[in-house]
């Protein structure tokens, strides 16, 4: 029998596959914590120039807070904003250096002409009411260094890019299980090291490395899980994994509220990799599909028997022996040669370009909306939870919608409707309705972004599945790297970024109609199988 028949005989969605899906949803959840931790670790807060650092106002009989407010009112230039609120300068102060506090108080400090303005020369004072300890405070990432948190976030996506390029090929060469275990060890090491970062340069480097290895964890988890279930269950298990991602929003917001120190927060989101590594080592079985395409039929049979025992099924010996005539157990060509053949075929080029563009756009829209939660105008911890809560019904719906209307119908409809929602939101005045339209856009793109993983797995042949996933994911990470800079366009026109995202989403949705429908089809094993998928366009 062929592999899908063998999988059916041992239970194509039995206790093992269900337990594996739940287990591997945990590293996906932790990956959400790692990628978004900077929302809190680099949280923006009010700041102003330090003056009279050693003067604690004891002679004036003031509390610490009253003293800091007095210093700010005396030494910091201010203006009245449109909403009649007083706004203090962040990067300049009056030149009161060398003058004692009492002397300046006696001067007419309200008349700013008596003091010249100078850049901050004694450091900054930070409002710690919302974010008590951040990298912005520890590394003084304000004024001329205020863009460095964006650089660090882009560095993480850059690591995702590198992980996508080399991670997929690594999983194809050494196997899904070993790639998963190795990447867990490495992301544990880099995440722990970042707890002790003494400066911003090392912090950025370690963020890059953490992103690299975290991406390999997610690629290995998704591919391994999808290869152990029947075609009808692939969307289900993929969305079980991504439900872990959605829960990560709740976990991170809660942890950030309980652990306001960014170093301890980084420690809290990294330590879970250790028990997870032990569980994976004991429980995770290598993908039998990977064994088969690497001409390791005996190892594949042993893996299938382990799964069968866990599922409470009995299997015959040599369950795969009769299927030597099928494509799946033929000796595979080398990965480089297969990749070259795929890219030299017309079908391979069409799929690669279209999928890469789709992943790129969906990444820009998804992360662009996710990193703009502050636009809701509510508490940052609550707004982050709202952003995650939107994803849970999206992932649940994605378990069923692709089986009802197919991969193409789901992707096209969600991207087009999501894009329209984004483009319409600037037509409404700021407030609840504009926020609802933006969240509707995120709801739609969450469905398509979740499904695109399954669709990519179902399109690429087994020999190149991790490599193909890595290539598509690389395009996604390039999009992610551009998001912080896309959001800067708000300075040109507040609605420009969301209109760009919405327009690109509509285009990607329409182009997805050119990809093959894979609903209910067996996973392609060879390039020839992938080419045959286009008869179902």
Automatic annotation (TrEMBL):
<feature type="transmembrane region" description="Helical">
    <location>
        <begin position="202"/>
        <end position="224"/>
    </location>
</feature>
<dbReference type="InterPro" id="IPR005829">
    <property type="entry name" value="Sugar_transporter_CS"/>
</dbReference>
<feature type="transmembrane region" description="Helical">
    <location>
        <begin position="178"/>
        <end position="196"/>
    </location>
</feature>
<feature type="transmembrane region" description="Helical">
    <location>
        <begin position="494"/>
        <end position="515"/>
    </location>
</feature>
<feature type="transmembrane region" description="Helical">
    <location>
        <begin position="20"/>
        <end position="43"/>
    </location>
</feature>
<dbReference type="Pfam" id="PF00083">
    <property type="entry name" value="Sugar_tr"/>
</dbReference>
<feature type="transmembrane region" description="Helical">
    <location>
        <begin position="435"/>
        <end position="456"/>
    </location>
</feature>
<keyword id="KW-1133">Transmembrane helix</keyword>
<dbReference type="InterPro" id="IPR020846">
    <property type="entry name" value="MFS_dom"/>
</dbReference>
<feature type="transmembrane region" description="Helical">
    <location>
        <begin position="412"/>
        <end position="429"/>
    </location>
</feature>
<dbReference type="GO" id="GO:0016020">
    <property type="term" value="C:membrane"/>
</dbReference>
<feature type="transmembrane region" description="Helical">
    <location>
        <begin position="468"/>
        <end position="488"/>
    </location>
</feature>
<feature type="domain" description="Major facilitator superfamily (MFS) profile">
    <location>
        <begin position="100"/>
        <end position="520"/>
    </location>
</feature>
<feature type="transmembrane region" description="Helical">
    <location>
        <begin position="381"/>
        <end position="400"/>
    </location>
</feature>
<dbReference type="InterPro" id="IPR036259">
    <property type="entry name" value="MFS_trans_sf"/>
</dbReference>
<keyword id="KW-0812">Transmembrane</keyword>
<feature type="transmembrane region" description="Helical">
    <location>
        <begin position="347"/>
        <end position="369"/>
    </location>
</feature>
<dbReference type="GO" id="GO:0022857">
    <property type="term" value="F:transmembrane transporter activity"/>
</dbReference>
<keyword id="KW-0472">Membrane</keyword>
<dbReference type="InterPro" id="IPR005828">
    <property type="entry name" value="MFS_sugar_transport-like"/>
</dbReference>
<feature type="transmembrane region" description="Helical">
    <location>
        <begin position="236"/>
        <end position="259"/>
    </location>
</feature>
<feature type="transmembrane region" description="Helical">
    <location>
        <begin position="265"/>
        <end position="285"/>
    </location>
</feature>
<protein>
    <submittedName>
        <fullName>Solute carrier family 22 member 6-B</fullName>
    </submittedName>
</protein>
């Amino acid at each position: 029998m062929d592999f899908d028949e063998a999988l059916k005989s041992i239970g194509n969605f039995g206790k093992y596959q269900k337990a594996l899906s739940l287990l591997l949803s945990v590293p996906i959840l932790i990956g959400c914590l790692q990628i978004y931790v900077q929302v809190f670790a680099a949280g923006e807060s009010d700041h102003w120039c330090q003056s009279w650092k050693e003067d604690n106002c004891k002679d004036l009989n003031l509390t610490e807070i009253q003293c800091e407010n007095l210093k700010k009112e005396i030494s910091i230039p201010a203006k009245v904003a449109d909403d009649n609120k007083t706004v203090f300068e962040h990067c300049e102060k009056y030149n009161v250096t060398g003058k004692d506090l009492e002397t300046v108080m006696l001067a007419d400090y309200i008349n700013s002409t008596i003091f010249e303005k100078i850049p901050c020369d004694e450091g900054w004072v930070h409002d710690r009411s919302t974010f008590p300890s951040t990298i912005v405070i520890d590394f003084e990432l304000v004024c001329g260094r205020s863009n460095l948190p964006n650089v660090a976030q882009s560095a993480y996506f850059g690591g995702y890019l590198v992980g996508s390029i080399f991670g997929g090929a690594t999983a194809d060469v050494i196997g899904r299980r070993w790639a998963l275990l190795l990447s867990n060890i490495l992301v544990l090491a880099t995440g722990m090291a970042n707890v002790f970062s003494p400066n911003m340069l090392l912090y950025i480097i370690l963020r890059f490395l953490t992103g690299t290895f975290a991406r390999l964890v997610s690629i290995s988890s998704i591919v391994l899980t999808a290869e152990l279930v029947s075609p009808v269950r692939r969307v289900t298990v993929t969305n079980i994994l991504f439900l872990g991602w959605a829960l990560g929003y709740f976990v991170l917001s809660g942890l950030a509220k309980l652990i306001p120190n960014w170093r301890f927060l980084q420690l809290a989101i990294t330590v879970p990799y250790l028990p997870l590594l032990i569980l994976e080592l004991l429980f995770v079985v290598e993908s039998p599909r990977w064994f088969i395409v690497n001409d390791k039929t005996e190892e594949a049979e042993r893996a299938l028997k382990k799964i069968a025992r866990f599922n409470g099924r009995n299997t015959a010996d040599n369950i795969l022996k009769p299927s030597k005539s099928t494509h799946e157990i033929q000796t595979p060509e080398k990965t480089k040669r297969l990749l070259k053949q795929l890219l030299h075929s017309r079908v391979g080029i069409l799929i690669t370009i279209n999928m890469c563009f789709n992943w790129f756009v969906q990444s820009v829209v998804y992360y662009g909306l996710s990193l703009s939660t502050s636009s809701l105008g509510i508490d940052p911890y609550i707004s982050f939870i709202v952003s995650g809560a939107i994803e849970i019904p999206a992932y649940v719906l994605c378990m069923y919608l692709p089986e009802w209307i197919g991969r193409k119908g789901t992707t096209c409809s969600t991207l087009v409707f999501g894009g329209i929602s984004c483009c319409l939101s600037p037509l409404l005045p700021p407030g609840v309705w504009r926020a609802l339209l933006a969240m509707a856009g995120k709801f739609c793109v969450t469905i398509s972004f979740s499904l695109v993983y399954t669709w990519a797995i179902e399109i690429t042949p087994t020999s190149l599945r991790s490599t193909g996933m890595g290539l598509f994911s690389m395009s996604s990470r390039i999009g992610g790297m551009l998001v912080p800079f896309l959001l800067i366009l708000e300075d040109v026109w507040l609605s420009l970024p969301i209109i760009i995202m919405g327009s690109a989403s509509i285009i990607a949705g329409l182009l997805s109609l050119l990809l093959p429908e894979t609903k209910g089809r067996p996973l392609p094993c060879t390039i020839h199988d992938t080419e045959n998928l286009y008869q179902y366009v």
